[in-house]
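Board notes (copied after class):
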Amino acid sequence: MNTLQLSRINLKHLTVLQVLLQTSSVTSTAQQLCLSPSTVSKTLAQLRLLLGDELFYREGNQLSATPIAHSLAPALHAVLSSMQGLLQPQQFIPEQFQGKFRLAMRDSCVELFADVLSKHLIGACPQAQVTLYAKEHYGMDALLKGLVDVVILPHDISQPPTQHQDLLWQALLTDEMVCLMAADHPLAHQANLSIEDYLRYRHIGITDSELNQPYFELLLAQQYHARSIALTVADFGSAAAMCQRSQLLFTCSQLWSNRALQAQHLIQKSLPFDYGNVGYSLVWHPQSLNNPAIKWLQQQLVSTLGQMG
């Protein structure tokens, strides 16, 4: 251990670096930390000297992090979360909390969980600032870097939603999968959907580069043959809109299908094969629980969303 070099880096250095990674702006970092832009620039210059790397370079009006700066983000999050746990009071009082909660999820999850989030999160912490990020932009890497506090997503329960060993996940509730189609689809008036019909028509897929290939896709390919994907979209709502205007089939969460406005005019059919266990899970970084507010958030989501099943 190079104790001499460590002695030259203080908490201010680490905090400025973390916020710079989040904002990509000296001005925004200064505003968040109640510092002057010149102080932030001076701290960045010291970090560059101490770490032997440029850390950021300018692209237009923003700063872009170097590979070394990006690689430091998870370790920064872990260190500063631990420090925050030491400095903050261990008793968390929701009514008095004036900080921020940052959640990432698909738009379909927002629609599904909106009532619970409003009543049990915003209602319990009336002075808090809650930000809901889109999962496709703030996913597992954002958790590792401390950009979001938790991620909520639908997935195969039998397959963990992340390969990152540093992250934890917990199933919130189980669900069924259903096949949706337009009201004028040739299969709409059939009593039961056969596997031949399901595979004969083309499908709408949901993209997520961070998740494993769904179990039901692997099962179909092994026992029958793979689905023919005609269109891939980012979320359930977009898929439902395209489903209404085509003869494409859309396989999705039954919970979402039963509650979403976009799915109200679609016909719902049970899937004609065994597809394993599916549901919704919460993913978080264990270091973040050093913060009493984030620990309360995690416990609140597990208890309240789990009751929806």
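Comment from the instructor: The longest strand covers residues 168-175. The CA atoms of residues 24 and 287 lie 24 Å apart.
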